[in-house]
Design goal:
The structure holds four protein chains of four kinds.
Chain A lengths: L1 E12 L4 E11 L3 E5 L6 H9 L6 E10 L2 E2 L5 H7 L4 E4 L3 H4 L6 H13 L3 H14 L5 H4 L9 H14 L4 E5 L7 H18 L2 E6 L2 H7 L2 E6 L2 E7 H6 L4 H8 L39 H5 L5 E4 L2 E3 L9 H13 L32 H4 L4
Parallel strand pairs in A: 3-8, 3-9, 6-7, 7-8
Antiparallel strand pairs in A: 1-2, 1-4, 4-5, 9-10, 10-12, 11-12
Helix pairs in contact in A: 4-5, 4-7, 5-7, 7-8
Chain C lengths: L12 H29 L4 H9 L6 H11 L15 H4 L2 H7 L15 H36 L4 H14 L3 H15 L15 H31 L2 H8 L4 H21 L11 H7 L4 H11 L2 H29 L7
Helix pairs in contact in C: 1-14, 2-3, 6-7, 6-9, 7-9, 8-9, 9-11, 10-11, 11-14, 12-13, 13-14
Chain D lengths: L1 E6 L4 E7 L13 E5 L6 H8 L11 E2 L2 E2 L9 E4 L13 H12 L5 H14 L16 H13 L5 E5 L7 H18 L2 E6 L2 H7 L2 E6 L2 E7 H6 L4 H9 L47 E2 L5 E2 L9
Parallel strand pairs in D: 3-8, 3-9, 6-7, 7-8
Antiparallel strand pairs in D: 1-2, 4-5, 9-10, 10-12, 11-12
Helix pairs in contact in D: 2-4, 3-4, 4-5
Classes of the chains: A alpha/beta, B mainly alpha, C mainly alpha, D alpha/beta.
Chain lengths: 372, 448, 338, 306
């Protein structure tokens, strides 16, 4: 039973350009679902759509979102406020800008407690200190009275997490939670998120552009490109066998020691401007496997395996040329002929290391984050 | 020659500004990225209608800026002697308005003066009556015909205006995007037509204490307002630009000195500073009557000095703004890239910093314009504005205010001055808003 | 980098800051004095002043000398080469007339009255009009701006902005003249002008106050609205909404407090200047405050008074700047004066 | 590189922020030296000090044996900045941007020769020749970074200081730029000082690596040595903190706490307060210990005879 269910969500600008175009996915309780994509692909707008917090000039055009069986888009604004910060909470990319600079940390947390748990005064204060303690802020009784500017970036993000947890949410939406942080701090914050999740059993929608972060945190992944989900799979499936040419290219573009001798397989060109592609696949212009049909017809969603689907003509069932091409595509994306095998990473050798052997970060949080 | 062109100081400055504006426009036209924000301005209907209004005012102001002295009809053809009176092309165009002065107040479109006078009728009886005007509505035999005649003339004029406007709209229809602008052209054409037709026979806005036509006064005031609003920037702009940019870029002692100067200037309440400077100027002018050939030249120099003083007292705000922006810009990576090539400071200032603060200057200038027009009225009212002999909104209001206590009130001169000012300032404000919206990079422009 | 503000804990930073700011004010005030002095004496010699004060009839060289001597204008302007040592600088008009200012000894006006006493008596009427105008204005403008912000991007907001632009395009003179005409002349509600102390004075000041407030609605409300709108676009506001707070609560508990920071820049600096009154309002409504005092002095070319008022204005302005900085520390915990 | 800290009523200088302290490094021709560190460690300051955009407080910069401090040689080294949106003047055409360095340094011959050179530069960085008449806002982030590289190359420098040139770009575009830098190095024999926090990029591009922490270099060596067998606990922690797509099951060193302020660095070894292996000796700042001819580390764990 999924906790959050998003169906055919469309979000667009007032002038009609679709920023988020026909997106569907669902998240189960206790699960981390990652939305992976480059800047401007619409992943943040998807998150804000779920919270019904879109900026001025952007509107939810169609689609349905079910949270715990409640249709969010049918709620009155008043009831939606109960959901926000209560059953679903959100943390943002820039912890430095996302906290109110002139309010103490304690008051900002207490606000949530008052709103969703009716907790006030000393009780709220006590609970705030507990929450800060939980997110690993040292000396919480003192910090609770401090202003955000006193805290470092990593500490601010911990405060944001404490604030999100204050409402005991069932779903946490984390929008690039570590992008603004240094690597050593990023590791701390991601660890905290994993720990929290295993403790509370909440679901998490993790929005990121970093394949590494996905690999270490997500259970399931959706890859977004120019407003659409182009591929969706479990983490194991995606890292073992990415299907969409874009996903494959993303992997191939990663620098690393293994490729030090040769050129990277870069994706030529750049992401098309919003709403500029009226027909055909949005990736067609940059795809080296594209053919005429890709430029003419928008590919439908195709389920390829259990839990894995893709929006690409290479895998389409219907259509005369589709079958042949699809077959070719399948052949090419296999372990043998794909440029992917250039990479010496162990996970690419799918035969030697079954995907299921990967540790589950949720069930075994200690396995990937043991402290030395 | 029957006239001698006269170039007053303010005229020269206006032409200088026009020239600079022309060169600027030509330069912008050749650079697509500079044209871009202007295209955004052009897309706004309010901005374009305001611009239309402003250009009407501008045309009146420019016509009033072409000055000359007419030749007096000499008795012997030996040497042409020129009248000491400096006139403008506008004066010539609306000559009837200028020379048809009544004895004293008369209401708009009135046939008679506003005050009763003792008159002797045909029978020799002395009566207290409202005397007929010398020029207003003289073609009518009695007050009973007035309404019909006014309506008829207004309609005829409006019709002529409609035709002329329609022709104009037909000519420009392809080059104008907004229908609102075309409608505005028609409306203004009709209004001007009606006004012109009535003005030929009446004092449309009445006359003032010495019998001058209020419409004429209002038209003459436009130039004064425009000059205050624009020429002042000639002083403000270079001071603020050079000092602000230099302070921000060089920092150190240059910054200290410049900051000291503007702190001193801005810590003096500006009205006091202006008042003191104007008084000083007045004393100088009064003690040197030999400097000026005509009274117009004297009043004009005072106007120019007023602009200078307003400029000297109002550059500090913009300077502070530019200093702050330059401080930010000098940390930009493209400036550091230029520094790493060893590009000279002067070149960095002119090539990198100044073009990137131009939008601030432009926004500040258009925003200041309306404030300056309003300030002129206040200063002239307080007695530290333009020369009392110069026609301006301020002097009109000042003169009219004295009649507030009169029963019934003489309202038309005040109404005319405030009305014209309101239209001018409102148009300027709306246009300034559109310019700010188009040029300010901080404003979010999704969807455009 | 050097932009890091390093706060100090060893001494009381506020006191150190205040002392430094007051020390910095001295050269500024010297500059202000020099400027007013120069403006006056570049064209106006002491002889001219004497002639003007004495009137055409009584002007004789002796009378001028006597006038100058009585009022201390018989010295050189800046440098006295007749004396040696420190006297070279101190035994001059500039020194004699400026030094006293720094201890608030303003001397006497040309008609022989003590300027300090005059200021003291006229401050009351000035404040009686300026202070209520300021306070009521602040409340009205901020409320109006908040209203527009709450209903931003709706027809109500558009109408509000349009009204603001219209109101700010109207000359301030119109508000005064129109107000006087309507309220005093047509409806006979309050006297047109004049002033009285105590409770009696209420009827005299109410019209100037109302007109002062109305005259500022356009530009001020629009300015506040811009600040609020800018603040509402910031990330922390999104966080507040994500908590489930209602829009009015976001506005009042989060946005308003942050918006105070830019608001203070424009508002606090004028508070000390309220003592100076308003030149325009006071002269229109015949209020015997410092504003009308200044105007009269300008028209009479009374240098001593003008110079004293300029000095007082500058001192109050600098006080306003310092007050602004101090007020920042109250609303913005990030600001530490050092 | 010291920056003053001011205090008190008269704002006397009471101390210095040592943004970069006692750093020595050398880059052979045709090599890439990667300078790795987290934000605020002074790596960007170091790059700017080399270019003398910030005057160093003390020390020497030699280029092919010639002293540069005090008499900078602008054509010898150039910089590529982090943010391609801030590093190009929005009011200048591409041609003007590329020509600026040549005209400032008076090289590149007459204007026709310069125009030809600009065409070549655009070819070299993979942009169409007609882009030279366009303005920066017409280009995407990756294309802008190509323009910035072309600008630096315009004066034919031998050393390019790249300050996080790909951190503002998306992965797919980052690969384009890395490829470009790599092929330019092969083609022109350029040396790079590559400032970054992205270890994957370091692995891909660098020959040698210096790791910085709070203004000092804590470890240096060849890329192989530093990345495969890191010695300094900080380097080890840094490497293990990078999330990797192949990183499952490896041992993770999680650092406690935050980076201290560079204005008040801890006494002794700056890293000691966060170091999982700190000991008493760490109260004194360690000298460099040679692990091999190319590999050295500043840590008491590796003291000879210790």
């Amino acid at each position: 039973m999924s906790l959050l269910k998003v169906d055919n969500l469309v979000t667009r600008l007032r002038n009609g350009a679709r920023i988020v175009d026909d997106i569907s996915f669902d998240i189960a309780a206790g699960e981390t679902f990652a939305l992976l994509g480059e800047s401007g692909c619409g992943k943040s707008m998807t998150a804000l759509s779920l919270m019904r917090l879109l900026p001025d000039g952007v509107v939810n055009a169609s689609g349905a979102v079910q949270m715990d069986g409640v249709a969010l888009f049918d709620l009155r604004e008043r009831d939606m406020r109960e959901m926000r910060g209560g059953r679903m909470a959100m943390i943002f990319q820039e912890p430095g800008l996302s906290l109110n600079p002139v309010m103490t940390v304690g008051r900002q947390i207490a606000e949530v407690l008052a709103l969703h748990h009716d907790l006030k005064g000393a009780a709220a204060q006590q609970r705030s200190i507990e929450l800060l303690d939980q997110v690993g802020i040292p000396d919480a009784p003192r910090r609770v009275r401090e202003y955000p500017f006193r805290l470092s970036g990593g500490m601010k993000q911990r405060v944001m997490i404490a604030m999100a947890l204050a409402g005991s949410p069932r779903l946490l939406i984390a929008d690039e939670p570590t992008t603004a942080l240094d690597v050593t701090i990023q590791a701390q914050v991601l660890q905290l998120l994993r720990d929290t999740q295993s403790r509370t059993g909440m679901a998490m929608l993790l929005i990121t552009h970093d394949l590494g972060v996905v690999a270490e945190n997500a259970h399931r992944v959706a890859v977004m490109y120019a407003g659409q989900i182009v591929e969706q799979a479990s983490r194991e499936q995606l890292f073992a066998r990415p299907l969409h040419p874009y996903t494959q290219k993303l992997f191939a573009a990663l620098p690393g020691a293994a490729r030090a001798g040769q050129l990277l397989s870069a994706i030529s060109g750049s992401v098309p401007p919003l709403g500029s592609i009226k027909q055909g696949c949005r990736f067609a212009a940059r795809c080296d496997q594209a053919w005429a049909r890709c430029h003419e017809q928008n590919p439908e969603w195709t389920a390829v395996a259990e839990g894995q689907g893709v929006r690409c003509h290479l895998y389409g069932e219907e259509g005369g040329g589709g079958k042949g091409k699809g077959g070719r595509g399948k052949g090419r994306s296999g372990a043998a002929g794909f440029p992917f095998s250039l990479i010496s990473f162990p996970f690419t050798l799918a035969g030697r290391r079954p995907a299921s052997a990967l540790p589950d970060p949720q069930r075994h949080p200690a396995a990937c984050g043991r402290q030395r | 020659m029957s006239f001698m062109p006269v170039m007053l100081w303010s005229d020269a400055l206006v032409f200088l500004l026009l020239g600079a504006g022309g060169i600027g426009a030509w330069y912008v036209r050749r650079h697509e990225h500079l044209l871009l924000p202007w295209r955004r301005v052009a897309r706004s209907a309010t901005a374009m209608v305001s611009l239309l209004v402003l250009s009407l005012f501008l045309i009146v102001g420019l016509l009033d800026t072409l000055h000359y002295r007419a030749a007096l009809t000499g008795k012997n053809g030996a040497e042409t002697v020129y009248s000491p009176e400096v006139l403008s092309v506008l004066d010539k165009l609306v000559e009837p308005l200028r020379i048809h002065t009544e004895k004293t107040y008369s209401a708009p479109l009135a046939l008679t003066l506003y005050a009763k006078e003792s008159m002797t009728d045909a029978q020799g009886n002395i009566l207290r009556e409202y005397p007929r005007l010398q020029y207003g509505g003289t073609h009518l035999s009695g007050a009973s015909q007035r309404v019909a005649d006014v309506v008829k003339r207004a309609l005829l004029g409006a019709l002529a205006g409609l035709l002329a406007g329609g022709l104009l709209v037909w000519i420009v229809r392809r080059r104008v995007e907004q229908r609102a602008v075309l409608v505005a052209i028609l409306v203004f054409a009709v209004l001007i037509g009606a006004l012109a037709s009535l003005a030929a026979a009446y004092h449309v806005l009445g006359t003032d204490k010495v019998g001058q036509d209020v419409l004429y006064l209002s038209l003459k005031s436009i130039r004064t307002g425009l000059i205050i609003g624009t020429v002042t920037t000639l002083v403000t702009l270079p001071l603020a630009l050079f000092l602000g940019v230099a302070a921000g870029y060089f920092r150190g002692w240059v910054d200290d000195v410049i900051q000291y100067i503007y702190t001193v200037l801005s810590s003096i309440p500006s009205v006091l500073l202006i008042a003191a400077a104007v008084l000083m100027m007045q004393v100088t002018i009064d003690t040197h009557p030999e400097w000026f050939e005509t009274t117009a030249a004297r009043a004009d120099l005072r106007l120019v000095f007023l602009c200078l003083i307003l400029g000297m007292t109002s550059w500090t705000g913009l300077c502070r703004l530019l200093r702050g922006e330059t401080l930010k810009l000098r940390e930009m990576e493209y400036i550091q890239a230029a520094q790493s090539f060893g590009v000279s400071s002067l070149r960095i200032l002119t090539r990198h910093i100044m073009p990137n603060v131009m939008h601030i200057i432009l926004i500040a200038l258009v925003m200041d314009f309306s404030a300056l027009v309003l300030a002129e009225a206040v200063l002239s009212y307080v007695g530290v504005g333009v020369d009392p002999s110069m026609i301006s909104f301020g002097t009109m209001i000042n003169a009219a205010r004295l009649e507030m206590g009169r029963e019934p009130m003489v309202w038309w001169a005040l109404a005319a001055a405030f009305g014209f000012m309101l239209v001018l300032v409102l148009a300027a404000n709306l246009f300034a808003d559109a310019v700010r919206d188009a040029f300010d990079p901080r404003l979010n422009r999704t969807g455009s | 980098m050097s932009g890091n503000t390093v706060s100090t804990y060893n001494t009381c930073p506020m006191i150190a800051y205040l002392i430094r700011r007051i020390l910095y004010a001295v050269p500024t005030l010297v500059g202000v004095n020099l400027l007013t002095f120069a403006l006056f004496f570049v064209v106006n010699t002491p002889d001219d002043m004497a002639r003007m004060q004495l009137g055409i009839k009584r002007v004789t060289p002796e009378a001028i000398e006597k006038w100058k001597q009585q009022r201390g204008y018989d010295k050189p302007l800046f440098i006295n080469s007749a004396t040696g040592g420190a006297g070279k600088l101190t035994d001059t008009i500039f020194w004699q007339k400026s030094a006293g200012m720094f201890v608030f000894d303003f001397g006497y006006s040309d008609d022989g009255r003590s300027i300090a006493r005059e200021i003291a008596t006229r401050m009351g009427p000035s404040l009686a009009v300026a202070l209520p105008t300021f306070l009521i204005g602040l409340v009205v403008y901020v409320s109006f701006a908040l209203l527009m912000t709450l209903f931003r991007a709706t027809a109500l907001d558009m109408a509000g902005v349009a009204l603001c632009v219209l109101l700010m395009s109207i000359s301030g003179l119109f508000y005064i003249i129109g107000g006087q005409f309507l309220v005093s002349k047509l409806w006979h509600l309050v006297p047109i002008s004049g002033y009285a102390g105590g409770g009696e004075g209420f009827k005299f000041v109410v019209l100037p106050i109302v007109i002062g407030v109305v005259g500022g609605i356009g530009s001020s409300s629009r300015w506040y609205r811009t600040i609020f709108i800018e603040e509402i676009g910031k990330d922390y506001v999104r966080t507040a909404r994500a908590k489930g707070l209602s829009e009015p609560r976001v506005m009042f508990t989060h946005v308003l407090k942050n918006a105070m920071i830019p608001v203070l820049t424009g508002v606090v600096v004028v508070i000390p200047l309220l003592f100076m009154g308003s030149l325009l309002t006071e002269s229109f409504f015949g209020i015997p405050g410092l504003g009308s005092y200044t105007i009269d002095a300008i028209n009479a070319q009374d240098f001593s008074v003008v110079r004293a008022m300029v000095f007082l204005g500058s001192v109050l302005y600098i006080a306003g700047l310092i007050l602004t900085d101090v007020s920042y520390t109250m609303v913005d915990p990030r600001v530490r004066l050092s | 590189m010291h920056f003053p800290i001011r205090k008190g009523i008269l704002q006397r200088v009471v101390g210095n922020v040592k943004a970069v302290d006692g750093v020595s490094l050398d880059i052979p021709q045709g090599h890439t030296l990667a300078l790795v560190g987290e934000s605020g460690c002074g790596k960007t300051t170091l790059g700017k000090a080399l270019l003398q955009l910030i005057a160093p407080t003390a020390g020497s910069v030699q280029f092919s044996g010639r002293e540069l401090v005090g008499s900078p040689s602008r054509a010898a080294m150039q910089m590529v900045f982090q943010d391609p949106y801030a590093s190009l003047n929005p009011k200048m055409r591409v041609a003007e941007i590329l020509e600026e360095g040549m005209s400032a340094l008076n090289i590149g011959g007459d204007s026709a020769a310069r125009q030809a050179h600009i065409d070549q530069l655009l070819d070299k960085v993979g942009l169409a020749r007609d882009s030279k008449w366009r303005y920066p806002h017409e280009f995407s982030g990756g294309q802008r970074q190509r323009i910035a590289i072309a600008r630096a190359l315009a004066v034919s420098p031998q050393l390019l200081i790249c300050d996080e040139p790909t951190s503002a770009l998306d992965v797919s575009v980052q690969a384009q730029i890395l490829n470009l830098l790599k092929s330019l190095q092969q083609e022109l024999g350029l040396s790079y000082l590559f400032i970054t926090h992205n270890l994957a990029v370091v692995e891909y591009l660098a020959h040698e690596v210096c790791v910085m922490y709070l203004g000092r270099i804590v470890e240096r060596g060849t890329a192989e040595e530093v990345l495969r067998a890191p010695k300094h606990p900080y380097t080890q922690a840094l490497l293990s903190a990078v999330p990797r797509i192949d990183g499952q099951g490896r041992e993770r060193i999680r650092l406690e706490g935050d980076l201290p302020s560079p204005a008040y660095p801890p006494q002794g070894c700056h890293f000691a307060p966060r170091c999982p292996r700190a000991m008493q000796a760490c109260a004194r700042y360690p000298d460099a210990t040679e692990i091999s001819a190319t590999h050295s580390v500043r840590c008491h764990l590796y003291r000879q005879g210790g």
